[in-house]
C-alpha cells in the first residue's frame, strides 16, 4: 500500500480490515426447511434441526450455495471446486448445538477484490475469503429478571461472511468500502441489505501503527449496523488506541461494542476459552462440490455489475466518472437514467436532471427510483423541450413539479405529449416570435436612456440593466439569448 | 421350528405367515410378548414399555391385515434400541441427561419399520436398554442399570446394543433394532448367541438416531437368524436424501431374495479371507476353536479359505478411540440444559448451570470420552491425534480393499472372549477398549459386518463368527450366513428360561 | 507425553464439566493410560495420506447433496418445547446472559 501522509492521524497510520455478515435472500434456512421471515413469534420458525433436537441432521440449501457463487463471480474471486463445512465448538445459549456449522480451512469463495471511488480516487480492497455459515439465535435480556429468553427463529439463517485484507487506511475509506459492498450484494440480489434487521452486519478490525512499523494489536468492533455509527465508532476507536499508546499503555486484543448513545466503544466480557474452538470437518456434511458448469450457468445469468455499467456510461454516454458512479447507486436509478437519456438523446442533461432535480425530489418525498412519479419518457421529453429552446430551465422545473404532483397514474400520464400539454396550459413557451420581442425591446430602450448611454460609453454591464426589464415585460417567456442578440444589434 | 410351537419360539418369517393367514392377530402376538417382557424384567433389557401404545399399534396392524394387505413384516412385533427417537415412547439413550425426553418425531428407521402409512407394519413393544449414548461394550454404562446376559445372568450381554441382544436371546421380542459404531450390534449379538448385521455406513438413515460418532454410527437389525435380519434390513435400508446428508442415495432392496442358493455346495466358489491378525494370541483359545469349526462347515458348503493381511488391526483401537470421542465431544454439546433434558436443580450463573447440568447428567464413561475428544481436537493436538487418526483410517480402508482382491468375504471372531462378568471391566476402560479389536476396523472403513452364532466356548457361553463384506455386499453376507444356518443349529439354541 | 492435572482442568472447562478434586487424579490416570495406547499411532507412516473424514467417500459418493430452497416446516414450537426445563412466552429461559 502506498503511504499517503494526509491520512495519518497524529502521526499514526490507521489499519482497518472488515468482516461482514450478509444474510442471504433464501426462503428457508441453510440446513433446515424452516422459514426465515423476520419478526415472527419466538421459536415459531425453527424445526428439529434448528432446536438441535436429538437425532436431527443438517441438509444443505442449494440456493445458499448459489448466492455464494454469485458473490464470488461479482468480486472476481475463485469459487472453490470443493469446500468443507467445519464445526466451531463453543457453549452459548443462542447456539443450540453447542457448535456453529461454518467453513474454516477451505471456504467456498477465495480471494476477490472490491473496487470503488473516493471522490475521483479509485480504491480497491482485497478480499481474503467469503464463507457460508449458519446464524445463531437471539438472547433477549429485557422482561426477565435475572434471566434471558432464547429465541431460535434466527438460528440457522444462511450467512455469507466476507473477510477483507487489512487494506483500509481511514474510517472514510472503510465506510466507502462498506457502502460499495452493500451496493454489490443488493445489486446482485443475494442480500436485502436491511441493516436495521441485521441483514448486513459489519465488524471492523482496527489497529494503528507508526508509518512503516509493524502492525499494531487490533481490536474488533462488533455489529456496526449503520454507516453513520461505523465512522463514529472507528474514529473513536482510533483516538482511543492512539491515546493508549501515547500514554505508554498496551493495547489488548479485544472485541468491543459501539454505544451510539455515548459514541464510545467498550470491550465485551472476554470468553477466556474463546481461542479454542476445536474446529474439525463436520462429519454430518460431505464436501461441498461445485461443478464448473454450474458456475458457468450462474455467470450467464448475472446482471451487469455497477462498476461495469459505470464504465459503459462513461464510454457510451461520455459521462464523467463521477456522474457514472452516482447514477449506478442502484439498479433502479441506473435504469431510470438510461431510459431518460435514450428518450431525449441528451445523456449529460439527463444525468444532471436525474442526479439533481429528480433525486432531490425523491429524497424530499422519501420516494425511490423504483417508482418515480414522472416517467423517464416524460422527463426525456421535458429535457428535449429545454434543449430545443421551447422552455427555459426555470420553466422546466415548474413542469416537473406538475408532473410530480399529478403522479404516475394520472390521466394520460404515460404519454410524453402530456409534457407539451402542460407547457401550453401554463403558457411557459419562450417567446420566439422576434416581432413581438422587438416591440418590447424598443419600449425598454426608450424607457432607459441612461443604460443605453453607459453601454455606448463602453460599459458592457449596463446591458444587464436592460435585459431584466425586457424579461419582466415578456413575463419570462423571452429567450435570454435572443434578447441579448437583439439588444446588441440595436445598440451597435 | 415347528409352526405350532409357542409364539416366542417362532421366527419373524413364521410369525408373519401366521399373521397373514389370520391364524393369530397382531394384538394377540403383542400381548404374548408383552407378558414375557413383564416376567423377564430382571434382565433389565427394557427401559420403556407402554402396553397401551403397543396394543394401539397392533390394532392398526390388524386393521391393515383385515384390509387385505400382505407385506412381509405386517403385524410382527419388535423393539427399538433407545437411541432411536420415537413419538410413542420416551427416548433416553440410556442417559440421565435425557430422562423422560419425548421426541416430536420418529427416527426414519422407526418410521420405515412402523405401522404408520408407508411403514412395514411392525409393532413397537418398547425401548431397549443400552450403554449411555451407545458408549460401551458391556451395557454396564447405562444410567438405568446393567442388562444381564440370558445365558448367565452374572455376565454382560455385550454392548452397546445389550438390551436388544438380551431381549432377542431371551425371546422377549422376535427381533430388535440396534446401532453399531465400533461393534455395538455385532459384539452383543455374538455374546448372546443371536444374529446381527451392521450394514455399509450410510445404508440406513441416521435421522432420529441420537448421535454418538456421526461418521461411524449405523443402524442394523438383530434377530435369531440371517433370514429374519434380511427381512428387517429390507425394510430399514434406503436412502434418506431429505433428512440425512450422509445416507447413501440408494433405493430399498429385497435382501431375502439373495439368501437362497442351489445344490449340495451352495457356497461353491466363495473365497473366505482369514486375517492373520484376527487369529493371533490376542484371541482366547475357546473362541478360536469354535470359529475354526464354523469355518470347516463353510468348506463343506463349498467355500475356500485364504489367508489375508489386515496389518493395522491393532492400530484400529487408538484410531477409533480418537475419532469417535472427538465427534462425540461435539455431538453431545447440545445437552446443555437449555432446550430439553436434564437441568441441574441448583446453580449460580449460566456457566455454572452448564457445568452442573452436564456433570450430573452424564455418566463416567461418557464424560471420559467427552474429555478425550475435547483434548484431541484442542489447539496444538489436532494434527498429532485427530488428523493422524483420520489418515490411519484411510490406510485401514485401503488394507481392506487389498484384502478383497484375494477374497469375497472376510471371516474371524467377533470378540476375543465370551461374555465377561458384570463389573469386571467397569473401572478399566482401556481393557474394555482392547476387547473391541476385531470390530473397530470394519466400522472405521464403513464396511458391512455381521455376527453369526458359531457354537459355544468357556462356560457354555455363545461365540460369534464375524463376516465382513465389501461395500454394499450385505446380500452376500446374509446369504453366507443363511446357508451356514441351514446346516447348523447354533442360532436355534436357547438359554435356559 | 502425559497430560497434567492442568490439562485435565482446561479440558474439563472447555467441555463444561466439573471434576471434584478427588476425581481429578483418578481421571488423569485413566486418560493417561489411554494415551499410552494412542502414542502407537505416531509409529505409522502417513506421509502423503489424505485424511478420511467420510467413509462414504470410499464408495465414490463424496459430494454433498443439496436440497431445493423450500420453507416447508410448520410451526412446531409446542411439540418441541414439551421437554423444555424452563419456558416463558415461547422463549427458553436461562440465567442472564452477560455480553
Can you give a write-up of this model?
The complex is a heterotrimer of chains A (492), B (497) and C (99). By secondary structure, chain A is α+β, with helices and mostly antiparallel strands. In chain A, helix 2 packs antiparallel against helix 3 (227-246), helix 5 crosses helix 6 and helix 14 packs across helix 15. Chain A has helices spanning 62-74, 171-187, 227-246, 292-301, 306-317, 321-327, 331-344, 347-364, 376-387, 393-406, 417-426, 434-447, 449-456, 464-473, 480-491; strands spanning 13-23, 60-61, 78-79, 82-83, 85-89, 99-103, 109-110, 113-118, 121-134, 138-140, 147-151, 158-164, 200-209, 219-224, 254-259, 264-267, 280-281, 288-289. The radius of gyration of chain A is 30 Å and the shape is elongated. The relative contact order of chain B is 0.13. With 497 residues, chain B is of the alpha/beta class. Chain B has a domain at 7-265 and 477-492: Amidase signature (AS) domain (Amidase signature (AS) enzymes). The mean pLDDT of chain B is 96. In chain B, strands 4-6-5-10-11-9-7-8 form an eight-stranded mixed beta sheet. Chain B has a three-stranded mixed beta sheet with strand order 1-3-2. In chain C, strand 2 and strand 3 form a beta hairpin. Chain C is flat. In chain C, 27% of the residues are buried. Chains A and C meet through strand 2, helix 1, strand 11 and strand 18 of A and helix 1, strand 1 and strand 3 of C.
Label this structure with key terms:
heterotrimer, A: 492 residues, alpha+beta, Arc Repressor Mutant, subunit A, 3 domains, ten-stranded mixed beta sheet, three-stranded antiparallel beta sheet, 15 helices, elongated, C: 99 residues, Histone, subunit A, two-stranded antiparallel ribbon, 3 helices, 3 strands
Amino acid at each position: 500500500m502506498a503511504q499517503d501522509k494526509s491520512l495519518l492521524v497524529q502521526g499514526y497510520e490507521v489499519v482497518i480490515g472488515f468482516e461482514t455478515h450478509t444474510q442471504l435472500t433464501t426462503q428457508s434456512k441453510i440446513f433446515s426447511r424452516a422459514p426465515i421471515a423476520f419478526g415472527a413469534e419466538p421459536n415459531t420458525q425453527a424445526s428439529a434441526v434448528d432446536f438441535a433436537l436429538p437425532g436431527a441432521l443438517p441438509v444443505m440449501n442449494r440456493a445458499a450455495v448459489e448466492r455464494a457463487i454469485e458473490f464470488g463471480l461479482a468480486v472476481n474471486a475463485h469459487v472453490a471446486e470443493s469446500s468443507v463445512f467445519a464445526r466451531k465448538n463453543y457453549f452459548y445459549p443462542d447456539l443450540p448445538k453447542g457448535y456453529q456449522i461454518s467453513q474454516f480451512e477451505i471456504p467456498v469463495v477465495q480471494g476477490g477484490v472490491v473496487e470503488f471511488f473516493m471522490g475521483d480516487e479509485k480504491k480497491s480492497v482485497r478480499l481474503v475469503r467469503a464463507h457460508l455459515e449458519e446464524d445463531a439465535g437471539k438472547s433477549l435480556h429485557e422482561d426477565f429478571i435475572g434471566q434471558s429468553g432464547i429465541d431460535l427463529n434466527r438460528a440457522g439463517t444462511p450467512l455469507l461472511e466476507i473477510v477483507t485484507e487489512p487494506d483500509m487506511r481511514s474510517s472514510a475509506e472503510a465506510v466507502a468500502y462498506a457502502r460499495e459492498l452493500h451496493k454489490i450484494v443488493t445489486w446482485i440480489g443475494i442480500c436485502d441489505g436491511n441493516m436495521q434487521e441485521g441483514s448486513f452486519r459489519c465488524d471492523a478490525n482496527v489497529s494503528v501503527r507508526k508509518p512503516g512499523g509493524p502492525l499494531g494489536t487490533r481490536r474488533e468492533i462488533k455489529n456496526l449496523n449503520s454507516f453513520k455509527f461505523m465512522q463514529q465508532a472507528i474514529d473513536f476507536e482510533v483516538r482511543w488506541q492512539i491515546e493508549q499508546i501515547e500514554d505508554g499503555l498496551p493495547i489488548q486484543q479485544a472485541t468491543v461494542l459501539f454505544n451510539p448513545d455515548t459514541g464510545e466503544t467498550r470491550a465485551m466480557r472476554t470468553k477466556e476459552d474463546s481461542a479454542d474452538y476445536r474446529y474439525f470437518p463436520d462429519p454430518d456434511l460431505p464436501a461441498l462440490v461445485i461443478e464448473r458448469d454450474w458456475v458457468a450457468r450462474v455467470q450467464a445469468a448475472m446482471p451487469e455489475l455497477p462498476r461495469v455499467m459505470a464504465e459503459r456510461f462513461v464510454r457510451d454516454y461520455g459521462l464523467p466518472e463521477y456522474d457514472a458512479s452516482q447514477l449506478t447507486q442502484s439498479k433502479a436509478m441506473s435504469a431510470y437514467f438510461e431510459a431518460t437519456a435514450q428518450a431525449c438523446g441528451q445523456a449529460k442533461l439527463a444525468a444532471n436532471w436525474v442526479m439533481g432535480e429528480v433525486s432531490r425530489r425523491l429524497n424530499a418525498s422519501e420516494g425511490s427510483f423504483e417508482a418515480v412519479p414522472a416517467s423517464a419518457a416524460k422527463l426525456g421529453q421535458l429535457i428535449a423541450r429545454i434543449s430545443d429552446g421551447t422552455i427555459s430551465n426555470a420553466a422546466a422545473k415548474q413542469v416537473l413539479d406538475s408532473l410530480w404532483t399529478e403522479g404516475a397514474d394520472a390521466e394520460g400520464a404515460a404519454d410524453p405529449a402530456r409534457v407539451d400539454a402542460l407547457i401550453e396550459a401554463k403558457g411557459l413557451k419562450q417567446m420566439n416570435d422576434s416581432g413581438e420581442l422587438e416591440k418590447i425591446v424598443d419600449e425598454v430602450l426608450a424607457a432607459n436612456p441612461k443604460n443605453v448611454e453607459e453601454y455606448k460609453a463602453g460599459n458592457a454591464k449596463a446591458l444587464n440593466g436592460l435585459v431584466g426589464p425586457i424579461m419582466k415585460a415578456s413575463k419570462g417567456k423571452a429567450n435570454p439569448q435572443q434578447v441579448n442578440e437583439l439588444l446588441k444589434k440595436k445598440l451597435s | 421350528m415347528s409352526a405350532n410351537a409357542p409364539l416366542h419360539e417362532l421366527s419373524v418369517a413364521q410369525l408373519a405367515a401366521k399373521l397373514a393367514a389370520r391364524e393369530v392377530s397382531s394384538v394377540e402376538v403383542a400381548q404374548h410378548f408383552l407378558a414375557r417382557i413383564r416376567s423377564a424384567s430382571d434382565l433389565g433389557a427394557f427401559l420403556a414399555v407402554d402396553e397401551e401404545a403397543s396394543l394401539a399399534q397392533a390394532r392398526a396392524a390388524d386393521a391393515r391385515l383385515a384390509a387385505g394387505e400382505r407385506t412381509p413384516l405386517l403385524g410382527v412385533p419388535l423393539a427399538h434400541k433407545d437411541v432411536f427417537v420415537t413419538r410413542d415412547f420416551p427416548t433416553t439413550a440410556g442417559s440421565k441427561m435425557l430422562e423422560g425426553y419425548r421426541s416430536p418425531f420418529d427416527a426414519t428407521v422407526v418410521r420405515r419399520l412402523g405401522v404408520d402409512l408407508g411403514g412395514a407394519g411392525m409393532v413397537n413393544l418398547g425401548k431397549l436398554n443400552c450403554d449411555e449414548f451407545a458408549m460401551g461394550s458391556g451395557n454396564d454404562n447405562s444410567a438405568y442399570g446393567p442388562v444381564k446376559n440370558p445365558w448367565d445372568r452374572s455376565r454382560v450381554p455385550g454392548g452397546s446394543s445389550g438390551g436388544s441382544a438380551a431381549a432377542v436371546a431371551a425371546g422377549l421380542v422376535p427381533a430388535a433394532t440396534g446401532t453399531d459404531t465400533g461393534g455395538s450390534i455385532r459384539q452383543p449379538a455374538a455374546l448372546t448367541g443371536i444374529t446381527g448385521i451392521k450394514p455399509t455406513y450410510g445404508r440406513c438413515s441416521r435421522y432420529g438416531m441420537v448421535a454418538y460418532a456421526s461418521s461411524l454410527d449405523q443402524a442394523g437389525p438383530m434377530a435369531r437368524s440371517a433370514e429374519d435380519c434380511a427381512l428387517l434390513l429390507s425394510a430399514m435400508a434406503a436412502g434418506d436424501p431429505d433428512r440425512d446428508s450422509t445416507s447413501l442415495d440408494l433405493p430399498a432392496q429385497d435382501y431375502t431374495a439373495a439368501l437362497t442358493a442351489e445344490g449340495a455346495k451352495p457356497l461353491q466358489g466363495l473365497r473366505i479371507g482369514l486375517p492373520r491378525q484376527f487369529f493371533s494370541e490376542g484371541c482366547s483359545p475357546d473362541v478360536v476353536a469354535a470359529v475354526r469349526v464354523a469355518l470347516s462347515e463353510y468348506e463343506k458348503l463349498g467355500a475356500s479359505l485364504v489367508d489375508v493381511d489386515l496389518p493395522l488391526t491393532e492400530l484400529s483401537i487408538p484410531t477409533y478411540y480418537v475419532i469417535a470421542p472427538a465427534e462425540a465431544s461435539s455431538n453431545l454439546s447440545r445437552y446443555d440444559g437449555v432446550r430439553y433434558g436434564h437441568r441441574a436443580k441448583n446453580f449460580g450463573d449460566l456457566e455454572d448451570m452448564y457445568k452442573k447440568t452436564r456433570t450430573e447428567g452424564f455418566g463416567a464413561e461418557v464424560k471420559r470420552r467427552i474429555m478425550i475428544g475435547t483434548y484431541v481436537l484442542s489447539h496444538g493436538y489436532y494434527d498429532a491425534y485427530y488428523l493422524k487418526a483420520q489418515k490411519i483410517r484411510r490406510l485401514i480402508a485401503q488394507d481392506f480393499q487389498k484384502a478383497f482382491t484375494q477374497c469375497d468375504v472376510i471371516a474371524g471372531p467377533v470378540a476375543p472372549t465370551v461374555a465377561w462378568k458384570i463389573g469386571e471391566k467397569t473401572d478399566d476402560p482401556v481393557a474394555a477398549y482392547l476387547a473391541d479389536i476385531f470390530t473397530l476396523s470394519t466400522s472405521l472403513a464403513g464396511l458391512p459386518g455381521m455376527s453369526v452364532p458359531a457354537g459355544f466356548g468357556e462356560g457354555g457361553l455363545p461365540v460369534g463368527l464375524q463376516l465382513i463384506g465389501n461395500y454394499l455386499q450385505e446380500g452376500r453376507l446374509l446369504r453366507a450366513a443363511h446357508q451356514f444356518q441351514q446346516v447348523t443349529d447354533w442360532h436355534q439354541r436357547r438359554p435356559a428360561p | 507425553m502425559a497430560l497434567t492435572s492442568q490439562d485435565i482442568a482446561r479440558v474439563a472447562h472447555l467441555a463444561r464439566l466439573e471434576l471434584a478434586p478427588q476425581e481429578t487424579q483418578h481421571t488423569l490416570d485413566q486418560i493417561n493410560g489411554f494415551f499410552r495406547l494412542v502414542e502407537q499411532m505416531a509409529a505409522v507412516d502417513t506421509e502423503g495420506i489424505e485424511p478420511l473424514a467420510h467413509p462414504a467417500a470410499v464408495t465414490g459418493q463424496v459430494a454433498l447433496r443439496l436440497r431445493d430452497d423450500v420453507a416447508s416446516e410448520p410451526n412446531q414450537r409446542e411439540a418441541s418445547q414439551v421437554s423444555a426445563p424452563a419456558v416463558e412466552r415461547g422463549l427458553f429461559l436461562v440465567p442472564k446472559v452477560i455480553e
